[in-house]
């Protein structure tokens, strides 16, 4: 996602974090549907951020 502007990256990052939190709270998240209209580079970046935030959110739930 080298060519994307900063606002797009912030929005994608926010969405990845939001979906990861939803997942950690037990809400179903179909990540394939979420990334379905993204190109390969966007999907790879988004899924990486989603996984990072998902693990982070799950660790936080264990601590609570």
Automatic annotation (TrEMBL):
SUPFAM superfamilies according to UniProt: Glycogen synthesis protein GlgS
Gene Ontology terms describing biological process: negative regulation of bacterial-type flagellum-dependent cell motility; negative regulation of single-species biofilm formation
Coiled-coil zones: none
InterPro entries in the record: GlgS (IPR015065), GlgS_sf (IPR036295)
HAMAP family per UniProt: GlgS (MF_00525)
Protein role: Major determinant of cell surface composition. Negatively regulates motility, adhesion and synthesis of biofilm exopolysaccharides.
Family, per entry: Belongs to the GlgS family.
Name assigned to this protein: Surface composition regulator
Species of origin: Serratia oryzae
Gene that encodes it: glgS
